[in-house]
Amino acid sequence: MTYRTRLTLLVLLDSIIVSTAIFIASWVVYPYTQILELDAIVISAIALLLFHHLFAAIYKLYNKVWAYASIGELLAIVKAITLSIIAAGIVQYLANDFSLYSRALLVTWLLHITLIGGSRFIWRVFRDRYIAGDKAKKRTLIVGAGAAGSMIVRQLHNSNEDNALLPVAFVDDDLTKQRMEIYNVPVHGRIKDIPSVVENHDIEHVVIAIPSLANGELNEIVDYCNQTSAKVQMIPKIEDLMTGKVSVSHLKNVEVEDLLGRDPVELDIGSISEYVTGSTVMVTGAGGSIGSELCRQLMRFSPSRILLVGHGEFSIYNINMELKGTFADADIDIIPMIGDVQDRHRIFEIVETYQPAIIYHAAAHKHVPLMEYNPHEAVKNNVVGTKNVAEAADTFGAEKFVLVSTDKAVRPTNVMGATKRIAEMVVQDLAKRSKTKFAAVRFGNVLGSRGSVIPLFKKQIERGGPLTVTDPEMTRYFMTIPEASRLVIQAGTLAKGGEIFVLDMGEPVKIVDLARNLIKLSGYSEDEIGIQFNGKRPGEKMYEELLGEDEVLPGEVYEKIYVGRTVEVDPKLLIDFIDQVAERSPKDLKDELMKIVYMEHNLKNVIL
């Protein structure tokens, strides 16, 4: 229906109701008397008609979408009708020798409210019951009958989208809400009752509407949901609801990252702001997973300038455009720089030109099997590249230098881990004689990073499987990219020179359990996708090693951040190794890497 046709019908309908209502009211109030002056009633009817359309225009009664009418629209109708009755009463009083048929006007007011309001709201009832229909909607269980769950139900009731959700029941652990109803949706049990509620009420969809779930609670809820065939979605966590309200459009699939997430770390905003705000900050590997997230986090602390340094043209372009779009109103100079950390001249040129106060060195080759086949490239990028950036920081007086390292540098069994350990040694050696405060930060696997297991599993699921897992018993420690980046920035504030900070990685996770969860969350069964065990790849460990009590200084220096013990580094050994990289065969290079790394293990305490 066009706007013109719709407007014409509404005006015509209102005109009929308004013109006849006062005559009906007069007959109802004075059915057997002749005290009414017909001329006064006719004048009142004309006045009512004119004033009704005037106030209807003022309150925009003809511009509202009545299919979604609610209390706000009802109040607009009441105001328009009340004012039109008052105005018509004044006209009647003046035209009828200062006589007023107050009871007739009151009944007219009630008829207007009933007929005009009813004509609007009957369309919503008709649409919900006969046009939109519930048959096409998916029967939905809402987990959490609090404020967020109530808002979700209300918005779902008003939704007319294709494949919309029909709220059928709540579950909530609050005993006072059991057997109660919220927006006509009953609370049918507690969270542990999810499987039975889904079965008994033919639930097709589950929405987890608890934005402030504590660590581990989401896993418990998802475990109950996984016992059913219903699709599972959730509202964002409380820290992600930037708009301040929950919306159906915010519903997201439950990701593995959500299940492995931990309680957020409260950053020391004051200390970070003190050394980041107003400073020039440089991030190498700025287009990578960790580097790009570091840039996003740093931008929130308003540096005066941020240098996005990276070798990949497209990745630097992407993060540059993202930051300029997200922080368009911030007075921050964002400078994309194409440069390879192996190019000493280019790195020195960048640092000399822009004089960064803080450098985060995240550029590295991190893929374990690939580095086993390309040890020379691993050394050139991870060791020589780190040396170039670190010495540039020292030469041009940067205040702080933070190396992003890995837990694979602990007792390394592969080229990647060994090169990162030697990169730490380079930084530690410089820390002994430089005014720049050098530090390194170690952590394990980050969820969603390039080359990590999660994106690989997702691609394998898209292809129909199977998911390839090394071994049923293989475990890893995981951390989300934002958490790792925040802790790296926090560790930088703690650096006094020469430390290697170790991040608490939480509890280990079996890779096969990760695969099973991802299959289920993607809407499939393990039988449909399958899991295939391929055996260890070159350089891989079955278990990532946690640090022994004798290897870490006691106590956290900050929440989830520890400082490791250190041993002396022989600078001559490092220089000789770096100078002779190109001359060595791949096998000799690997042997020499392990020789240097394990030489310090003979000192009993591993450098951490």
From TrEMBL:
One Pfam family in the UniProt entry: CoA_binding_3
Transmembrane spans: 7-29, 41-62, 74-95, 101-123
Xref: InterPro entries: NAD(P)-bd_dom_sf, Polysac_CapD-like, Polysaccharide_Synthase-Rel
Extent of the signal sequence: none
Residue span, Polysaccharide biosynthesis protein CapD-like domain: 281-563
Domain of life: Bacteria
Keywords: Membrane, Transmembrane, Transmembrane helix
Assigned protein family: Belongs to the polysaccharide synthase family.
PANTHER family tied to this protein: POLYSACCHARIDE BIOSYNTHESIS PROTEIN EPSC-RELATED, UDP-N-ACETYLGLUCOSAMINE 4,6-DEHYDRATASE
Identification of the protein by name: UDP-N-acetylglucosamine 4,6-dehydratase
Upper lineage: Bacteria, Bacillati, Bacillota, Bacilli, Bacillales
